[in-house]
TrEMBL record:
Protein name according to UniProt: 2,3-bisphosphoglycerate-independent phosphoglycerate mutase
A biological-process GO annotation: glycolytic process
Pathway where it operates: Carbohydrate degradation; glycolysis; pyruvate from D-glyceraldehyde 3-phosphate: step 3/5
Name of the gene this protein is made from: apgM
GO molecular-function term, one example from the UniProt record: phosphoglycerate mutase activity
Organism: Candidatus Altarchaeum hamiconexum
Lineage of the organism: Archaea, Candidatus Altarchaeota, Candidatus Altiarchaeia, Candidatus Altarchaeales, Candidatus Altarchaeaceae
């Protein structure tokens, strides 16, 4: 039999807990979602521990796990994954940070942060970011503004260490002096380099014309960069070497694109795929259909972020609506796969639970349904509690790719 292609649809934070104010139901149990239910009915269902029992996953660690990589081994901090997601290339000795543009004031030679996100006003940040690329005696500095008030910083040079503290004070107030976190010379040096960078940022950004334009528009100056989450990229085996699959990643958020790039998935950019609730999710599905029809990739990961963002806001009705919107575009995918005979195994799941009552990620299991050449079960509804009774039972995040490999006829026999 012919091998099938694999589409893995990850609706970020879609799983939830029952809400007492909504008849003890979860958003998935309330939403009208005929296409998700079709995947459950015609497929095999189960629940999954993205990382481990009771471990609330981050999106990046969960996506690593769902791609078959043990996050405890391969996750090296948020900085490097953000930098990769923003499209920067990382050498193995580079130190990467995630950053915010912020608003600062100097008093008595000390820098005080008055707004940690520079009022979130994005105007001019791309251009301002470009000014922060320069060479010093100690290291090359590479900076790129990413989405909103965020950006990424990479220090490139000899004898650098990621064992340093953040310059971000994580609240308004005096900026933190960066300190080495171990006794190595490299850590001391890197801390100094970052402190100097902060001083220099303040000078460069305040002098810029664009800054004056921001101020003329009544916006807060974006005149300092706060850095945190220092890390190096690790040695991660490439996805195509590990599985022999030519893989692609369709995602709006830098965080997930970074995971995709770290394992060598091709990033397919979709316009207006922002990762917010109003993201162009139809565009993502269209891009996936195009990939399948044009036969370019054997494996496509689609991340839809809006469900997570809404959950953090605690908006139950909004989450139900978002699930219904996702369901509509899934209908398009299912139709196209059957009409065009696109021999495909489709898995639908979430990367973690983000409960609208807790407003945070939690360590609950997530539902999963797989459509393809599977042993179907009795489950007809895609929800946390229905899927728990399904034929897949309880799986671990890092088992998922093996299961999909096997179902798509790529399983490698162990033993004779
Ligand atoms: Zn997530
Ligand atoms: Zn989240």
């Amino acid at each position: 039999m012919q091998q099938t292609k694999i589409v893995l649809i990850i609706c970020d934070g879609m799983a939830d807990r029952p809400d007492r104010e909504h008849n003890n139901k979860t958003p998935l149990e309330v939403a009208s979602k005929p296409n998700m239910d079709k995947i459950a009915r015609d497929g095999i269902c189960g629940i999954m521990n993205p990382i481990g029992y009771g471990i609330p996953p981050g999106s990046n660690t969960a996506h690593l796990a769902l791609l078959g990589y043990n996050p405890y081994e391969y996750y090296t901090g948020r900085g490097p994954f953000e930098a990769l997601g923003a499209g920067l290339n990382l050498g193995k000795d580079d130190i990467a940070f995630r950053c915010n543009f912020a608003t600062a004031e100097k008093k008595n030679n000390k820098i005080f942060i008055t707004d940690r996100r520079a009022g979130r006003g994005e105007f001019g940040m791309k251009e301002l970011g470009k000014l922060l690329n320069f060479r010093t005696d100690d290291a090359d500095v590479v900076f790129k503004a990413s989405s909103g008030h965020r950006g990424v910083l990479v220090l490139r040079g000899k004898n650098l260490s990621e064992k340093i503290s953040d310059s971000d004070p994580h609240s308004e107030g005096e900026i933190k002096e960066v300190r080495p976190l171990d006794d190595s010379d490299a850590a001391k040096r890197t801390a100094q380099i970052l402190n100097k960078f902060t001083e220099r940022c303040y000078e460069i950004l305040n002098r810029s014309e664009i800054q004056s334009e921001r101020i003329n528009k009544g916006m807060l100056p974006a005149n300092i960069i706060l850095a945190r989450g220092a890390g190096k990229t690790g040695e991660i085996p490439k996805f195509n070497e590990k599985y022999g699959l030519n893989g692609a990643c369709i995602a709006g958020v830098t965080l997930v694109k970074g995971v995709g790039r770290s394992v060598g998935l091709n990033i397919i950019d979709v316009s207006s795929a922002t990762g917010h609730a109003d993201s162009n999710i139809e565009g993502k599905i269209d891009a996936c259909i195009k990939e399948l029809k044009e036969n370019r990739h054997d494996f496509i990961l689609i991340n839809i972020k809006g469900t997570d963002e809404i959950s953090h806001d605690g908006d139950f009705e909004g989450k139900v609506e978002m699930i219904e919107r996702i369901d509509k575009v899934l209908g398009k995918l299912l139709l196209s796969v059957s009409e065009n005979n696109l021999n495909t195994t489709i898995a639908l799941t979430a990367d973690h639970t983000t409960s609208v009552t807790v407003k945070e990620h939690s360590g609950d299991t997530v539902p999963i349904a797989i459509l393809g050449d599977v042993r179907t079960d009795e489950i007809c509804k895609f929800s946390e509690r229905e899927c728990a009774k399904g034929g897949l039972g309880v799986i671990k995040g890092t088992d998922l790719l093996n299961i999909l490999m096997d179902l798509s006829r790529r399983g490698k026999k162990f033993g004779a």
